[in-house]
Design goal:
Number of helices: 7
Distance between the termini: 76 Å
Strand content: under 5%
Mean pLDDT: 81
Largest sheet: none
Helix content: over 70%
Number of strands: 0
Order of helices and strands: HHHHHHH
Low-confidence stretches: none
Length: 166
Amino acid sequence: MKKIIFFLLISIVMHTVAIAQPNPERRPPPPPPRENQRERQRNDRRDEDDRRGPRMEERLRPEQKEKIELFKIQFITKNLELTTTEAEAFWPVYEAHKKMIQDIIKTKMNDEILLQESMLDARKKYRADLLPVLKTDERVNKALRVEREFLYKMRHEVSKRRGWEQ
């Protein structure tokens, strides 16, 4: 009698274990490894960036560009405290520097070291050209910083309007 009960218990346990094993045909495929999934997401984002098209400056309407340019002129003039005679001398120097920077970016984009050297040379030339206009080294240094401050302010405003700011 003990043998029969023992045999029945063993057979029930083995039957239960056999049924509990998943069927390979019904099992869903395992998820891809996380690294591959992350890499795929990065590649998808890069593809989206490529499909986005032109940079923000190129997507702006002419009236938007004009507004930004007027705001920039006002911001720089106010921060540097330019008089009318200084402003008349400053803006041609500023525009020449801006054009030089754009040309450097277009021509030397593929060589990072050459690009940075050219940018530094352009900033040194800009500094030398500003010194007769602004008269003091302190004001020249402030002029070199003011555009970066303007770009920071613009980025901050854009992020705030898009709801990215916390």
